[in-house]
Specification:
The chain is of the alpha/beta class and 239 residues long. The chain is 45% helix and 15% strand. It binds BIS(adenosine)-5'-pentaphosphate.
Length: 239
């Protein structure tokens, strides 16, 4: 597989083809992935969106995937690795891609690094760091358009007309797993299974950048991500 490089982020050249957005539930991965995708014109690959789509279309009927997601636990590595690899091998991913919510376990991280290294793809992992209390407020306030998947928040990004999508007028919904009891389970799963992936990246000397995503609005966090990638690109690689 051949990857084209460099691409332009906020007008500046960057020399990575894979951006991995890492962070707890509600840290803003989906929000930032949409901004990065618009800017770089590469696919946004969200394992959560892919799994929800499979449930919606009945592809997971009779399997344990829907039940697992409703409890806030993680879906099996085999299922998720398979879905991601299918997407990564599509022609549109040759230009590069944004990963959102993957990898989330050590087994997934190992598989992804093998896949990237076998193809000589350069990745950067962006860790969106957010305080626990901010996360709870964000997730309980999240609303989603079921048609175009635009994200809202009743506190920080309300729609113009209460309860309706600005883009297509569709009635906004609350995600099944955004109930407070399930949110706690998701945060638990993050602490036990996903947080150790950060150390794994560090130990292997992979490019890992932490960005403060707690206090500022999405556009400010986005600029911070762009600057961090560009600065890291220059300092590490001398382009
Ligand atoms: P998934 O859909 O990936 O959910 P998640 O990781 O829990 O993350 P969220 O989508 O809840 O949050 P986010 O970080 O994207 O934040 P967002 O931008 O939406 O996974 C769901 C389930 O699928 C998992 O529990 C698991 O069962 C399964 N799954 C998925 N991937 C898997 C994998 N790899 N392995 C195994 N199982 C897997 O923002 C949240 C809210 O905050 C929004 O309302 C937004 O408007 C607002 N907001 C965002 N940024 C800001 C900001 N800077 N300031 C103020 N508000 C903000």
């Amino acid at each position: 597989m051949r990857f084209s490089a460099p691409r332009r982020l906020c007008g500046e050249k960057i020399f990575v083809n894979a951006i991995v957005l890492f962070g707890s539930p509600g840290s803003g991965k989906g929000t930032q992935a949409k901004l990065l995708t618009d800017c770089l014109s590469v696919p946004h690959i969200s394992t959560g969106d892919m799994l929800r789509e499979r449930i919606r279309t009945g592809a997971e009927a009779g399997t344990s995937v829907a039940a697992t997601m409703q409890t806030g636990a993680l879906v099996s590595d085999d299922v998720v690795n398979g879905l991601v690899e299918q997407r990564l091998t599509r022609p549109e991913a040759r230009k590069g891609f944004i990963l959102d919510g993957y990898p989330r376990t050590l087994a997934q991280a190992t598989r992804l690094l093998e896949w990237l290294d076998e193809r000589g793809v350069r990745e950067v992992v962006i860790h969106l760091a957010v305080d626990y209390n901010v996360i709870i407020a964000r997730l309980t306030g999240r609303r989603v358009c079921p048609r175009c998947e635009t994200l809202y928040n009743i506190a920080s990004r309300p729609p113009k007309v209460d309860g309706l999508c600005d883009r297509d007028g569709e009635k906004l919904v609350i995600r099944d797993d955004d109930r407070e009891s399930v949110i706690r389970e998701r945060l638990d799963a993050y602490d036990r299974q996903t947080r150790p992936v950060l150390e794994y990246y560090q130990q292997r000397g992979r490019r890992l950048i932490q960005v403060d995503a707690s206090k500022d609005p999405p556009n400010v966090v986005f600029r911070r991500i762009c600057q961090a990638i560009q600065t890291d690109d220059c300092s590490k690689n001398g382009f």
